[in-house]
C-alpha cells in the first residue's frame, strides 16, 4: 500500500490568505499526474491511501473535478483519470515550455555557425513577441530583448508567422495593425504584402531586407505544431554588410533549423523539409 504523503506545511493554516481546500485539490491533481503517467486509470482507494486527509474529502474533490469535466471515471468503478478538458487547459503551457527546450540547442548551433543574433518569436496580439534571444558576440550586433514586440508586416518573423495562417486571419490581423512605413523599404500595401506572403509559403523562408530597421537584414522560417499550424518562428538578424554575403547560406540554415524543430516537436507529422504532411 502506498505511503501517506507528508502532512500539510506547518502554520499554513495561520495564513489568512491561504485557501486550505486548494492545497487538497492540488494534492489530488499532483498525485494523478505522477501516478497516472505510469498506470492509468488510478484506483480511488490508492489515491485516498496516499493523501493525508479523509477519504470523504478525496471523494468530494474527485466528484467535483468530474462534474467540472477535468477528471473522468474509467469503465472500472472507482478508477479515475484526466479528461480531455484537463489537457486542453494545460496543453499550451506545456507546449510552450517544450518549444523553448527543443529550440535551445538549435539556436545555439545557428549562433555558432553564423555568428549573428538568433531569435525565437511567436504571434501575440497581432505583433511579433520575442520569447528567446541569443545575441551575437560581435560588437556591432542587432538584438531584441525577450518580451519586446515588433510589427508583423515589416519583420521576417512576422511574415513567417502570418504566411501560413488562413487568409481571413491574416487580413483580420492586418486590419487591426496598421502597416506603418518603418523604413523606405517597408511594404505598406495590403495587396502587395499578401502576394509577398505567397512567396514566403512557397520558399518556407521570409526575408526582411532593411524593412523594419535600416541597415539590418533578418531571415526567418516557421515552426509548426502537430496539427500543422504555425506556432513560432526562428530568425537570424544582423547588419546588412555582414548578412548579404552569406544570405543564401543563412536562408538554408534557418529553414533547416526550423524544419528540424518542427520534426522534434511532432516526429510523425512532418515531411523531411519540415512542411506538414498531407492527411494530417
Short note summarizing the structure:
With 280 residues, the protein is an alpha+beta fold. It contains 9 helices and 9 strands.
Protein traits:
single chain, 280 residues, alpha+beta, Arc Repressor Mutant, subunit A, Beta-Lactamase, 2 domains, six-stranded antiparallel beta sheet, elongated
Descriptive overview:
The protein is an alpha+beta fold. It folds into two domains: 12-82, Winged helix-like DNA-binding domain superfamily/Winged helix DNA-binding domain (Arc Repressor Mutant, subunit A, Orthogonal Bundle); 91-265, Beta-Lactamase (2-Layer Sandwich), CATH 3.30.450. 44% of the residues lie in helices and 18% in strands. It has nine helices and nine strands. It has helices at residues 20-36, 44-50, 55-68, 84-114, 156-163, 167-176, 190-203, 240-243, 247-265; strands at 42-43, 71-73, 79-82, 117-124, 127-134, 149-150, 206-209, 216-224, 230-239. The strands form two sheets. The chain has a six-stranded antiparallel sheet, with helices on both faces. Strand 8 and strand 9 form a beta hairpin. Helix 4 packs antiparallel against helix 9 (247-265). The longest helix has 31 residues, at 84-114. The model has no long low-confidence stretch (mean pLDDT 84).
Amino acid at each position: 500500500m502506498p505511503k501517506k504523503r507528508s502532512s500539510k506545511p506547518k502554520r499554513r493554516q495561520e495564513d489568512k490568505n491561504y485557501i486550505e481546500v486548494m492545497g487538497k485539490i492540488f494534492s489530488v491533481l499532483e498525485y494523478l499526474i505522477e501516478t497516472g503517467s505510469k498506470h492509468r486509470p488510478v484506483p480511488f482507494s490508492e489515491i485516498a491511501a496516499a493523501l493525508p486527509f479523509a477519504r470523504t474529502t478525496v471523494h468530494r474533490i474527485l466528484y467535483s473535478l468530474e462534474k467540472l469535466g477535468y477528471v473522468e471515471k474509467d469503465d472500472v468503478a472507482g478508477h479515475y483519470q484526466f479528461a480531455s478538458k484537463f489537457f486542453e487547459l494545460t496543453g499550451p503551457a506545456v507546449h510552450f515550455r517544450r518549444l523553448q527546450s527543443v529550440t535551445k540547442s538549435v539556436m545555439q548551433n545557428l549562433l555558432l555557425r553564423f555568428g549573428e543574433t538568433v531569435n525565437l518569436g511567436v504571434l501575440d496580439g497581432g505583433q511579433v513577441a520575442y520569447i528567446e534571444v541569443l545575441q551575437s558576440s560581435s560588437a556591432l550586433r542587432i538584438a531584441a530583448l525577450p518580451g519586446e514586440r515588433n510589427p508583423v508586416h515589416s519583420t521576417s518573423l512576422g511574415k513567417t508567422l502570418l504566411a501560413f495562417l488562413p487568409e481571413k486571419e491574416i487580413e483580420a490581423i492586418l486590419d487591426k495593425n496598421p502597416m506603418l512605413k518603418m523604413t523606405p523599404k517597408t511594404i505598406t500595401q495590403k495587396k502587395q504584402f499578401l502576394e509577398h506572403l505567397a512567396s514566403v509559403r512557397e520558399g518556407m523562408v521570409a526575408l526582411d531586407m532593411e524593412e523594419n530597421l535600416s541597415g539590418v537584414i533578418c531571415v526567418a522560417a516557421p515552426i509548426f505544431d502537430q496539427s500543422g499550424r504555425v506556432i513560432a518562428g526562428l530568425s537570424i538578424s544582423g547588419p546588412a554588410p555582414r548578412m548579404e554575403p552569406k544570405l543564401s547560406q543563412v536562408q538554408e540554415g534557418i529553414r533547416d533549423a526550423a524544419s528540424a524543430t518542427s520534426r522534434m516537436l511532432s516526429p510523425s507529422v512532418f515531411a523531411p523539409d519540415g512542411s506538414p504532411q498531407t492527411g494530417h
